[in-house]
Amino acid sequence: MQSAAPPIDQGAAPGAARAGIPGAAAVALPLAAEDQARSDLYALAASLLLAPPDAALLAGLAAADPIKSNGSEHALADAWENLVLASSVMDASAVSEEFDLLFISSGTPVVNPYGSLYLSGFMNDTPLAELRADLARFGVGRVRGVFESEDHLGALCETMRVLIAGGAGIRRQPLGEQKAFFEARIAPWYARCLSDLRNAEGANFYRLIAAFVTALLAIEAEAFAVEDGFDV
Question: What pTM did the predictor assign?
Fold first, then answer.
């Protein structure tokens, strides 16, 4: 599947320890299956939120296997099934037009998926500055020439992918760091944003994307909450 260019720079420091283990700079240990699945789903969410899927991505989605539900994950399995079915009949040009209608405007777009706006009421406000401090600590910077700021929900999904799987010159982060970032930068506002997208006038295919991303992030929020029970 083809993904959009992310607004964040995953770093390019040569010789950095990829696995986060002293002396293991040349060895990248494989991700656990669960983390690989999380990383892949975050990558897809980022791609779909940052740019309209092209014909190749739609075909890949249409041919995707179902997600097996387990307990609370039935919402994700159902949302995934709906997205896969819709992808099999959607035309890439129609999806592109819908994306432009929802997110691109010479005035105020129908949906503005930026954390700063939802958290403070203003674009490019204090929450974005705080986010950039977090990203700098992880060695993640903004890609030059990209319009979207780092607090775009798609960019934050890409950041979570990098925290889980690592990137060029960026170590994978432990679960505690992933949890802290998610709870500070995504959890307080993602549900409102995706509800706005799901209910936006003109949302058709993106209504299903919003349901998929909502289910994914809800599972993450629940898993991180359960993790609290094991803190000592």
Answer: 0.85
Q: State pLDDT tens for residues 118-147.
A: 999 999 999 999 999 999 999 987 776 667
d(CA 49, CA 155): 8
Residues 167 and 176: beta-carbon distance below 8 Å: no
Q: How many CB atoms are closer than 10 A to CB 218?
A: 19
Rounded Cα distance, 143 and 60, in Å:
27
Q: Does the pLDDT of residue 102 top 90, yes or no?
A: yes
Beta carbons of 45 and 88 less than 8 angstroms apart: no
CB 17 within 8 A of CB 146: no
Q: Would you mind telling me the total number of residues written for the chain in this entry? A: 232
Which residues 6+ apart lie within 8 Å of 224 measured at CB? 178, 179, 182, 183
